[in-house]
Records
---
Amino acid sequence: MADHVPAPHPPGAQLAAPTSAVAGAGGRYRVPSTVGLAAVLTGCVLVAALHVLHHADVDPVRRTISEYALGPTKWLFDLAVLLVATGSGVLFGVLVHSRTVRPLSPAAFGGAGWTLGLLAVVVFPKTDWSIGPSLAGTIHRYASVVAFVALPVAVLAAARAVHPHAPGLRLLTRVLGLASLAWLSLIVGAVRLMLAGGDPWWRALPLGLVERGLLATEVAALAVVAAGCLRLRTPAPPSRLVTS
């Protein structure tokens, strides 16, 4: 059997240059990325509002943000966290859909862990210690840990892919990811001291302050990732044959 020989190009035919991914029409992912970032930032504004509404009830240095869910403004806390979770899910969905990161990658898994962890924080409220321990409170605590650990992993893993041509933003993403892990290391250190016979870990450090610093750092890292999402374009189509 004779080998198949590709047909020659018709006279005057030429290969069309592939469309540039950067010059691609209006940026297919700009709208969802903008919506995702807006949701995250709106959620953060609502969290800040909780501090004003409960300035005399919750000590921001010692008490965690979840304390706000034990009072009459639980709905506002839930709305704030849901906005951050939804916006985050949209942003990481953009990264996966645009093939910036692979679906089965540390960045994708980290983004999913952060998003699902935040959703679990809303579904399972913090333990009200005036009543006693609860299963929901235990799930809430572990979901918080998963979320706060997962996001730094995600942004560190995605930094290069999200900012391939912006070394400054890539470096900033990594610095914020490492800074988030540094905040977490303070909590780990307090736990180790407790296991060695020291004070309970939640009393050995200003837990509320550490958590707020951690959250602010992680949201900043997420915002820098979102900046990369805003610049994504529709992947270039394959070259096609055109005739003059």
---
Amino acid sequence: MHNTSKLKEIKPFVQQVGEAISAVVNAEITIIDDELERIVGTGQFKNRVGIRIPKHFIIAKAIRTGRSFVIEHPGYDPNCSGCHRYNNCEDTAFIAVPISLKGKNIGGIGLVALNSEQKKHLTTQREYLLRFIKKMAELIASKVAEKEVFDLTLLLTSRLEGVINSVKEGIIVIDKEGKILILNFYAKQRTAATDQCVKGKEITDLLPNFPTEDVLKVGKSLTEWETILHRKGGTSTNILANISPIRLQGVIEGAVISFKDISDIQSFMNKISMKAIRPTFDTIIGESKAISDAKRKALKVAKGDSTILLLGESGTGKELFAGAIHNASERSKGPFVVVNCVSIPENLLESELFGYEAGAFTGASPKGKKGKFEQANGGTIFLDEIGDMPFPLQGKLLRVLQERTIEPIGSKSLIPVDIRIISSTNKDLLQLVKKGLFREDLYFRLAVIPIVIPPLRERNGDILLLANHFRKVHNSLLNKNISAISKDVAKILLNYSWPGNVRELKNVIEHATNLETGNEISIESLPATLIKYKEKKNILNLRISSLKEQEETLIKEAIARFGNTTAGKTEAARFLGISRATLYRKLKKYKILNFSN
């Protein structure tokens, strides 16, 4: 079965072109496709549309060879030999021009003179007419090309729709004005809406808390944003969304919102909860004194309910420590709720933490919503990046710490909560206190037990231990059999400063395991940022640790709080979680005061 010819696909257009040519040149026109079927005919050829012409006709020869022909004596011209009308042709003159596209002849145009007047016009104007017919052939070819692009666009659009509709999460595309352009099948299910209902509507009709200014004006992306999705009929549901602006040549032209219904997430989590790996202190890899001391201190205080402040640079494993403390505590059977204070927009953080009553604000769920503190009741809440908590909310957090109650937005009553609070930061909170950016009273409430998690550069003995652990993990994930890390790579790993700490080391080994083709990780498989350290000496002792500065500040604060007496130092040591002898050594090390008392 033959496919429809390209000229047939645009037949109405080709018909218009044929009739226009005939009117201009005062001659008859016949247009043939590459299957030698007449697509268009004027005058006496009109009744022959749909009929195939013989392959020895001049226009068939033009299509076959890609050449143009001007025949002034049809039936007698050498190019007419082989034609059944040779020496007996009814045409008086003929111009045949191929229609070509991308090096392929897809048809031809024939200009036919049937009487002496038409012949005279054709022969005297042959060059002009030849150029004109060639232009018309190019016009038809360009229309075919346009149709091909259009068809390809339709195909790609259909494929894209198939892809986004197969994704098991909601996808909404909006333009730069915040108008809805596309919803996938999941999104339509969750909103109970049709294209006709929502396309062209404001995104705030579905997501009343959508941060239009941040996303469409500033170009901010959001990850794991918990919000409300309005449904048709006035109901709503809680979702977890990611938002990415769409940019064209640097200009924001819209955004893509992907989301999951939280009930779907909870259902999935319930399915895998029995298989989930609970972090323990045994899962924190490391044998160096620095990490061992941190683990030992954390294990000692895990059984209690005192607040803990984890101090460490990004990537040191603060959340892993928090999870291990929770799982070693009496609260291990209760929930462990993580809140990243920097990833949630400031205007939403209060409702995320404290929850809200039904109808508390525009866009609020009619059922209300439990906040993170209430969700953590009976367990532990981990406030990651506490140094980024907005100042106005710090007072409300202090109240939770003091009274163990929360007040949801829009509520007139207090809800008691039984929680333990673990927080973390990579910032110097005391410096933020001095600058008026962090409440001093809140700091002391959070830092009842401060634990410093050392950066990887201070755990030199753990670097290769961790690297080999990650090598084995990614061997399994990638189905590889890399048995070792080369000596040259080991030197680089030991010399590198690891600003991204354990997280960066994990990424480096994952990168290398993906690229490595041999039996051991070689320099060639490392990221470029590490290769430049090939000849460097170990710079571990040349860096000034920001955490050491924090430690010095903590000791100074403790002495200022408890006094420069023997009893005061005993209390300070207890507050810091170290022995009095260790405190005296550190006082001497930092030259803080006369340590001989």
---
Amino acid sequence: MTDASTGGLPGLARMDHVGITVPDLEEATRFLVDVLGCEYLYSLGPMVDETGNWMTEHLNIHPRAACPELRFFRCGGSPVFEVFQYTAPDQRTDPPRNSDVGGHHIALYVDDLDAAVAYLREQGVTVLGEPTVSSGPHLGQRWVYFLAPWGLQFELVSYPHGRAFYLAEKAAAGTAVPAGDVTTKETT
């Protein structure tokens, strides 16, 4: 937990959830549950303010924007997706690329990257290229991007034997690293 004396956000314990906006809530639900294997948790809504400025004041969106329903999903334990389908007079529908301001991706850890990539391809998911082998601080890691049906960028990442920076952190802290816990050379 972060302490105010360290200059960080007081009380910060962890990341709680990631909110994403989708063009079709049903399509997103099918993708998150049926393809990725996330667990549907619950729904809320509607969120709308037909006459006031609540949507602008609290969410920084058009005052007449509306979200009839939002859904929550748990994926692999603790990460939670909060998924919105908005309508708004000024809504943009093109997802940002990683190189655009506001561009982003969501990384999912898998134990077997090759099996996960094969599975996604069998499901008709667009996988961007072949897995990349990392070097430097991420030595021991492999990764690849893929796209949700609406264009959101995801990343699969795998480092079943650890990453080089983990070894350095442990060594600096004087903590022993269990045998086989960190890859010290790249493997294919």
---
Amino acid sequence: MTTSSTRRTKREARAPFRRYHLFFYLLLGSIAFSTISAFVWVFNASMKSNREFIGTPPWSAADTWRWENYANAWNNANVGAFFGNSILVSVTATVLGVALSAFAAYPIARIPFRVNNLVLSLFLAGLMVPWMVTFIPLYLTLQELGLLDSRTGLILVYATYNLPLNVFVLVGFMKTLPYELEEAAAVDGAGPTRTFVQIILPLLGPALASVSIISFLNNWNEFFYALVFIHSPEYMTLPLGLFQLGQSADYGTNWVTLFAGMMVTVVPVLIVFALLQDHVTKGLTTGALKG
């Protein structure tokens, strides 16, 4: 009697648990389906002619895959130039931002100061500042420095934009490392800089990969700061360039060229995340739990 009651109680306890998981599986499945459907639709539309896109149902398959739409977007619509600007700005800003984050996180996590928690709290406060609040002072600062409408100005903005999250993750990861590393290095005569560069930095692989990928994706997809700070077509990134193409008379109704440009924007993001998503998960999990 007791055994059957115990089994019934366990089944009753598991039932809500299973329903809870089923709800989230359905929710995640619907989100994944809608995302993949949008990606497939844009790819299919980019393979049609403009007349075919306008004159056929939205989900009808392309009669012929027209890869020339991508060549037209790359060469004639300046998507190739926009792509080059995005690569240059995103990669440079990512490298600079991650380097600054690592140097800022090391003393907070490994060198005992009374103000360490205060400094970390100030970085975390940066995560709570809405981006709408920052663009006016940033605009005025870049104007004073003569860096408006330049790749350099945009790189500096992007590099600092990701600092709060990067520092938070790296501080959490560094706290998981044993302090005996610094003690052994000090016995060998190594100072803080040498200890960081030669001992701590090589151990930060997962965390550095994580913040690098997230920073790159944020920089690659960012639109608003580029819209405010960049005006010359030769400096435009992909999101801004495609937006301007959509507003132009030449390409505002040339939908298939715009869709081809969108695919050029999406594919590098998918490749980077598909290859390195394990590093993102590992680095964020370790850093967030310890931090």
